[in-house]
Write a sequence for this structure.
């Protein structure tokens, strides 16, 4: 389902990639997405958090894969050929996000992003920058810099 696009000025709009993880829909800034690729089995690493599936070889580079559902405190995904990896820039690093499917590319303006409700738990507020209501769908805008906070603290 492609949302109806309204004419907006280029200065006030931005594009987001929306995706599904479990029964929820999320989005990230398209400028943080390097590529979207099919699922590739990951090689597990010892002593990693439960939400890290492992690593894959991405054209000679080692790419850590984060199970997006598990990172949000939900049951881990059981990856299949239908799952995708969104390769994203988080700070200066590349990280793959394991999600169920990519849905759309959305063009939004800042006034379309509603603040995260006060009733949301701390986990939600940590990962969600805002909520978009588009075509009857509620889409959470993800704060990518919070997906791997330890890596970002280490890089700083």
């Amino acid at each position: 389902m492609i949302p109806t696009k309204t004419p907006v000025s280029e200065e006030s709009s931005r594009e987001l990639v929306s995706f599904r993880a479990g029964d929820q829909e999320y989005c990230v800034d398209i400028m943080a997405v390097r590529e979207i690729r099919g699922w590739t089995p990951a090689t597990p690493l010892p002593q990693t958090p439960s939400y890290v599936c492992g690593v894959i070889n991405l054209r000679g580079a080692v790419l850590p894969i984060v199970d997006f559902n598990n990172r949000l405190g939900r049951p881990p995904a059981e990856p299949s050929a239908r799952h995708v990896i969104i390769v994203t820039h988080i700070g200066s690093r590349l990280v793959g996000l394991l999600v169920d499917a990519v849905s759309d590319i959305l063009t939004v303006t800042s006034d379309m992003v509603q603040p995260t409700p006060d009733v949301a738990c701390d986990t939600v507020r940590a990962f969600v920058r805002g909520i978009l209501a588009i075509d009857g769908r509620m889409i959470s805008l993800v704060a990518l810099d919070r997906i791997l906070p330890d890596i970002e603290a280490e890089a700083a």
User: Anything to note?
Assistant: The chain has a mean pLDDT of 85. Helices lie at 68-71, 122-127, 149-155. The radius of gyration is 16 Å. The chain is about 10% helix and 45% strand.
